[in-house]
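Long-time lurker. I teach an intro course on protein structure, and each term I like to show students one example going from raw sequence to a predicted 3D structure in token notation. This year I'd like something fresh instead of my usual example. Would anyone be willing to generate the tokens for the chain below so I can use it in lecture? Attribution to the forum is fine with me.
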Amino acid sequence: MEQLKVLIQLAASDNQVAEKEAKLIYKIGQANGVTKEVIDEMLKTPNDVVSLTNLTEEQKFEYLYNIVQLMKVDGKVFKSEIVFCQRIAERLGYKKGVIGELSQKIYSDPSITADRDYLRDKIKKYIK
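-- Reply from a regular --
Happy to contribute to a lecture. Here you go:
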């Protein structure tokens, strides 16, 4: 649920949730057992404060991966989205440059997956 809230915050950071962004949010939510109705409610209040404490390294990586993919999924990357991703990265204990590193290697099409083990190794240098 917390991850979905972060994704929704990112999607709404440019003041609108694009159709492709919403589809990805629904796909991720439903893959994790969250109903469409719950996601609809979450989309109505995108600015709920999300706590990122007590996450494992794997969970932190998944957050980063998903927010970068969501940022890119609609084919348009706005400065507000980049700044939001950088703030989330910093809250997760990474230097904000990690977003640029991941953005180069994560595809906007969710059906094309990057080598996650490779990416995990690449971003270690960004841990604070």
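Some talking points for your students: The helical segments are 2-11, 19-31, 36-44, 57-73, 79-91, 98-105, 116-123. The mean pLDDT is 83.
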